[in-house]
Design brief:
There is one protein chain. With 425 residues, the protein is α+β, with helices and mostly antiparallel strands. It folds into three domains: 26-156, Immunoglobulins (Immunoglobulin-like, Sandwich); 163-276, Immunoglobulins (Immunoglobulin-like, Sandwich); 278-424, no CATH class. It has helices at 2-25, 75-78, 92-96, 278-291, 295-311, 315-342, 346-362, 366-381, 400-424; strands spanning 32-36, 40-41, 45-54, 61-68, 81-83, 87-89, 102-103, 108-117, 125-136, 144-156, 163-167, 171-175, 185-194, 200-207, 214-219, 224-227, 232-241, 247-258, 264-276. It starts with a helix and ends with a helix.
């Protein structure tokens, strides 16, 4: 009986060790690796890496260490990095105290590594490889080796250089012409300023592709080799449009540049082209007044239209408005000359015919010019008025009937000229 009790007691004493040995033969869980690393940095700053290793295997971890695999970082990136800590034993303090190098289940260790990225590092993604090497099992000898690598990425953000683009025009206004379309030419001033502490390279200014017909020329010629810190450059964008319908069109001017390492940067500014029909509506209104012989209203409409066209440098239609005004002045003066003639004031009549002729010439109206010259010649050839006041005189002068016919002819000719010019345009 005593022997049986001794055996039972011995088995109870050996039970914990036996259980642990059996557990060592079972598949173990992986240790837990928790890493805190910034997702991005700027040049000339540190990458602080915090690591927590927890023994979640259910058994012991021997001769464990954590390190940064610097060799796996590409050399073209590694050259810009400085490593302050790259390797740490999890239980080094136990080794120093003469204890076994072991991490028991549920124990954990916190570590910290530091990497510095210098000021010259380009805008790249740095791969960070964290490696855990250990041996897992109950025995210090013959335990299973374990190696695990986790990867994290740190993006280098380069905010420099920084160029500022400014256009001196917010809106260009164009007035439509015939068929309610417009075209025009204008310039947009630009200023490019480097507001950063680094040089910008391959600076290029361009007008973005537009859905409207547009051609541009930029000075100075692009691209520029560089713009140094604190410097700026100015120039002009010469813009010529094709035929545009009334509406508002937004034009984008793009600025691109690179840093020393080739990273591309972009910015832009915009201006608008506004096509309006006000001037052309005034021009058509003036034509209708002219056809109805409402001369002062016609002149007012043509003058307003001409001012709008001159404002946007639409010379063709501004010139048309000018010729219409001159035509009307020619008609008005011709009628005044007729009145002088009927009153017998031949000198005033001749002078007024000469003024009328000048206006007709400015209007490019050859019919009116010729009629004025004929009237002047008639007066010069017969300067003495007829005895009966112009109702049957003799000589080569103009009779009242002649002048009436001339007036009818010139008004009709003026209407025909207006219609023909309008159709031709």
């Amino acid at each position: 009986m005593r022997k049986f009790l001794i055996i039972i007691l011995a088995l109870l004493i050996m039970l914990p060790a036996t259980t642990e040995m059996l557990a060592a033969d079972d598949p173990y869980e992986e240790p837990t690796i928790t890493v805190e690393v910034p997702s991005s940095i700027t040049p000339n700053s540190d990458i602080s890496i915090k690591i927590n290793i927890k023994n979640t295997t259910g058994t012991r971890m021997w001769r464990s260490k954590v390190y940064i695999d610097t060799i796996s970082i590409p050399s073209n990136i590694r050259q810009y990095l400085e490593f302050f800590e790259t390797e740490e034993y999890l239980t080094r303090h136990l080794v120093i105290q003469g204890l076994k190098d072991v991490l028991y289940p549920d124990e954990e260790v916190d570590l910290a590594f530091r990497i510095k990225a210098n000021s010259q590092i380009p805008a790249v993604t740095i791969p960070i490889y964290i490696v855990l090497e250990t041996e897992i099992g109950l025995c210090e000898e013959g335990c299973a080796p374990y190696r695990r690598t986790v990867e994290y990425e740190v993006v280098v953000i380069r905010d420099d250089p920084n160029l500022f683009l400014e256009l001196d025009l917010d809106e260009a206004r164009l007035n439509v012409g015939d068929c309610y379309i417009a075209k025009g030419n204008f310039t947009v001033g630009h200023t490019i300023e480097n507001t950063s502490q680094t040089t910008a390279f391959n600076v290029n200014l361009s007008v973005a592709n537009s859905e409207i017909p547009l051609s541009t020329t930029i000075t100075p010629q692009m691209p520029l080799a560089n713009i140094k810190p604190g410097n700026s450059t100015t120039g002009l964008i010469y813009v010529a449009t094709g035929n545009l319908s009334p509406g508002t069109y937004t034009i984008t001017v793009d600025l691109s540049y690179r840093d020393y390492y080739g990273k591309a940067f972009y910015t832009s500014d915009t201006f608008k082209i506004v096509v309006v029909s006000t001037a052309y509506e005034l021009l058509e209104e003036g034509e209708l007044y002219l056809l109805s012989c409402s001369y002062q209203n016609a002149i007012s409409a043509f003058e307003s239209a001409m001012a709008l066209y001159e404002e946007v440098d639409y010379q063709e239609l501004a010139e048309r408005c000018y010729r219409r005004i001159e035509l009307i002045n020619g008609i008005i003066l011709f009628k005044q000359a007729q009145s002088y003639y009927h009153l017998g004031d031949y000198e005033s009549a001749s002078d007024t015919y000469a003024l009328s002729k000048q206006h007709y010439e400015n209007a490019n109206d050859c019919t009116g010019t010729s009629l004025c010259q004929d009237a002047i010649n008639a007066i010069e050839n017969n300067p003495t008025p007829p005895a009966n006041g112009g109702n049957g005189g003799h000589g080569g002068g103009l009779t009242t009937l002649d002048l009436s016919l001339v007036l009818v002819i010139i008004v009709l000719a003026g209407v025909v000229v207006i219609l023909l010019v309008g159709k031709r345009r």
